[in-house]
Specification:
alpha+beta, UDP-n-acetylglucosamine1-carboxyvinyl-transferase, Chain, four-stranded mixed β-sheet, 8 helices, 29% helix
């Protein structure tokens, strides 16, 4: 969002932050034209998804191209509470972020606007917390209906109870193989996190192509996390 706003301002569009929940845009009155210089920011949600996916089975997981400071403060704080150390840099010296998994502890996380914990990582976190010790909770304050992952995770043996906007998550659950359906991009991402720890294949049906839209070279990146992907049957294991 901030990268887009920077480009719009360079093109003469006035963008004002009118409080924490409103952005006011005043156009130029005609087609935009001109040259701008912009750096495309890293995708924090994609990077966070891969960190959580890798940490399901590995003590160390790294993502290249995104610094620790690029992640929202709320995400970094939640990871520390759960028992994950986030460090700048990767094992091969490239710019990136490395996550070190210790003993996973229960946490109580609430989504809030940036720089708090992002709603777009909430389903993935819920799947991850099924592996922590104790009883966790995730409270969604941004999107009321962001619990579509709960039914799909249940197909893999992971039980999450929903009470209004609050999800109650029992720890130390063990996922198993099964067939799931991606109803939206974050639901699909939560399934990927759970599938990383499943001992048997997980079939992921994504008829609308949500994951392909949000995760480039998904099969290649999952393979680097140690997961095998057969795209002919749309399965991961």
């Amino acid at each position: 969002m901030l990268g887009l706003i920077s480009v719009l301002r360079q093109l003469g569009v006035e963008v004002l932050f009118d409080g924490p929940a409103m952005i006011r845009v005043r156009g130029t009155g005609g087609p935009l034209s001109g040259q701008v210089t912009a750096t495309i920011p890293p995708d924090r949600m994609e990077a966070g998804t891969y960190l959580l996916t890798g940490l399901m089975v590995h003590e160390r997981t790294s993502v290249v191209g995104i610094r620790l400071a690029d992640f929202p403060v709320g995400f970094r704080e939640a990871m520390a509470t759960i028992g994950v150390d986030l460090l700048d840099g990767t094992e091969d010296g490239h710019m990136g972020t490395t996550a070190l998994r210790r003993d996973l502890r229960a946490a109580h996380v609430t989504t809030t606007p940036h720089p708090g914990f992002p709603t777009d990582l909430q389903p993935q976190l819920a799947a991850f917390l099924t592996q922590a010790e104790g009883r966790s909770s995730v409270t969604e304050t941004i999107y009321r209906a962001r619990t579509t992952h709960v039914a799909e995770l249940a197909k893999l043996g992971l039980g999450i109870s929903v009470n209004g906007r609050r999800q109650e998550i029992t720890g130390r659950q063990r996922p198993h193989g099964g067939s799931t359906v991606v109803t939206d991009i974050r639901c699909g991402a939560a399934v990927l996190v759970a599938a990383a720890a499943a001992p048997d294949p997980v079939v992921v049906a994504d008829p609308a192509g949500h994951l392909a839209r949000g995760y480039g070279d998904l099969a290649g990146k999952l393979s680097r996390l140690g997961m095998s992907v057969d795209q002919n049957v749309r399965s991961v294991a």
